[in-house]
């Protein structure tokens, strides 16, 4: 706690106290200032919680708080917040301690007078309660699998309370969510034929396609449909000629060949000069 206070000093203040006193303070402050937005904090003051007051960047404050963790042993009856995996290798225990490993079905072998774990073992799963055998084994191995520290559970800003996961969103995430929302609005608008700004361009295009389809199937025509009708009558008029491409390819090949001949003549001249100096 002292390290957290020191890390936040100058930008933030950490307040820990009894929940009843904090709730009463929030109510009194809301009555004096008339700002009832603070009352939304009262339902959150349950359990072992505290308040961090800051005018700095909320994401930076969250990252600073997360830096300070203290290792904690696995105690009997504690609900595991994470998976606990015992790594392979030498345990430093003498062979008389193999009973702990046998109870937990951990494969071991004796190597140079010590018990060695052969493969990594998932000892405790997240959400399971720690048993007496698991706690005793982890204590003997000197493993402190859990950690303690402050965790940001909710964020209050200008009367709104939201999850701290929002602070991890980047600009790309926001743009992606915005595009996803626009796409849903467009799809819904097209499905129920309700005009919106998001669907307007698609409606115009679909309408143009319908009108063009009618013009193609009937004798009715207009300037934008004439080219389409002409293409459907004789597609060869719009085919890209290949003669020019073939001629350009031949020209390019001729240039390459002439270049190769020039290179060969230059190499012959260089070889003649070298032979001359050799004589």
TrEMBL record:
Large ribosomal subunit protein uL10-like insertion domain sequence ranges: 74-143
GO molecular function: large ribosomal subunit rRNA binding; structural constituent of ribosome
InterPro entries found in the cross-reference section: Ribosomal_protein_uL10, Ribosomal_uL10, Ribosomal_uL10-like_insert, Ribosomal_uL10-like_insert_sf, Ribosomal_uL10-like_sf, uL10_eukaryotes
An individual GO BP term: cytoplasmic translation
Acidic residues bias: start-end ranges: 259-279
Annotated region described as Disordered, given as residue ranges: 255-279
Keyword RNA-binding: no
GO CC terms, sorted: cytosolic large ribosomal subunit
Keywords, ordered alphabetically: Ribonucleoprotein, Ribosomal protein
Gene3D superfamilies found in the cross-reference section: 3.30.70.1730, 3.90.105.20
Xref: Pfam families: Ribosomal_60s, Ribosomal_L10, RL10P_insert
Superkingdom to which the source organism belongs: Eukaryota
Reported function: Ribosomal protein P0 is the functional equivalent of E.coli protein L10.
Subunit structure: P0 forms a pentameric complex by interaction with dimers of P1 and P2.
PANTHER family per UniProt: 60S ACIDIC RIBOSOMAL PROTEIN P0
Protein family (similarity comment): Belongs to the universal ribosomal protein uL10 family.
Protein name as annotated: 60S acidic ribosomal protein P0
Lineage start: Eukaryota, Viridiplantae, Streptophyta, Embryophyta, Tracheophyta
């Amino acid at each position: 706690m002292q390290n957290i206070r020191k890390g936040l000093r100058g930008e933030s203040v950490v307040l820990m106290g009894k929940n009843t006193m904090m709730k009463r303070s929030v109510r009194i402050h809301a009555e004096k200032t008339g700002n009832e937005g603070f009352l939304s904090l009262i339902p959150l003051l349950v359990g072992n919680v505290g308040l961090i007051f800051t005018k700095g960047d909320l994401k930076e404050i969250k990252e600073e708080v997360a830096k300070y963790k203290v290792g904690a042993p696995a105690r009997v009856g504690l609900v595991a917040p994470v998976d606990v995996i015992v790594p392979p290798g030498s345990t430093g225990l003498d062979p008389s301690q193999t009973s702990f490993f046998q109870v937990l079905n951990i494969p071991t072998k004796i190597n140079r007078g010590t018990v060695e774990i052969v493969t990594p073992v998932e000892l405790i799963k997240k959400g399971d309660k720690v048993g007496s055998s698991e706690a005793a084994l982890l204590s003997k191995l000197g493993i402190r699998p859990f950690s303690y520290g402050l965790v940001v559970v909710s964020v209050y800003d200008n009367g709104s309370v939201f999850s701290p996961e929002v602070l991890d969103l980047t600009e790309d995430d926001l743009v992606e969510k915005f595009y996803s929302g626009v796409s849903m609005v467009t799809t819904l608008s097209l499905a129920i034929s309700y005009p919106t700004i998001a669907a307007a361009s698609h409606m115009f295009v679909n309408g143009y396609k319908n009108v063009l389809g009618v013009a193609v199937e009937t004798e009715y025509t207009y300037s934008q449909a004439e080219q389409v009708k002409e293409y459907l009558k004789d597609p060869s008029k719009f085919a890209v000629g290949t003669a020019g491409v073939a001629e350009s390819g031949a020209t390019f090949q001729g240039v390459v060949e002439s270049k190769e001949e020039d290179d060969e003549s230059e190499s012959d001249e260089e070889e003649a000069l070298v032979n001359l100096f050799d004589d």
